[in-house]
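User: Please run a holo structure prediction.
Assistant: Happy to. Please share the sequence and the ligand.
User: Here you go; the ligand is SN-glycerol-1-phosphate.
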Amino acid sequence: MKLKGKVKKYLMDKLNDNEKLHFSLLDPFKINSSEELKYIAKNLYNVGTDAFLIGGTLGVSKDKLDFVISLLDDYEIPKIIFPSNINLLSEKADALLFLSLLNSDDIYYVIGAQIVAAPIIKMLQIEVIPTAYVIVGHGGTAAHIGKARVIPYDNFELATAYTLAAEYLGMDFVYLEAGSGAPEPIRPEMISFIKKASSIPLIIGGGIRSVEVALKLVEAGANIIVTGNIIERDVDKAIKIIRGIKNK
Ligand code: 1GP
């Protein structure tokens, strides 16, 4: 299956069928060996993860990015770049989340990096998926680097306003991010509150470490669950999460 240029359709078809999706976030900086990556990827793929997201905020070079994507070549699910900056572009990927960090105080992360990257993306012919990136609560490294004015965990109105703004700007997805390794993930109550106002698909990530938490988020209306850290720490827990989501 060749997915280049068809990733958005692949995702939208599944969402239109009311499927709940899971993305496996792989951070090239945290991968210790190609054997480890192959073992992890095989398990995630076999249990039904819907896509590989590849990215990280610190320590990711183009070489490492290319290397990781190449190792994932055998798996017939999309390899999507999750960029933290303009150094994370690769023609080897099937698509790129074209992120705008809507709640950044630095215009570079809202529209500057996108302008610098756009001609390169055009040249490399990478499919883009326009996505609003909104950082909530803890925020982690992404919030620090991205100079995000984080939305408090309990400010559902503000999160809804951002989601509606993203929808009116024509974005395909809103990615609500609590930050990699966040002690608390996005609250399910925030998701159900947003869902009353907007039907834009929600990608939810940051601090999701158990199937119970993932299922509460899905029940509240999350369309796509992202797990990162838990994959590297305890792949069996990640497998349980994916099984739980895919059996919904
Ligand atoms: C981070 O949302 C992702 O960008 C995943 O977070 O590593 O905490 O799963 P975790």
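The mean pLDDT is 96.
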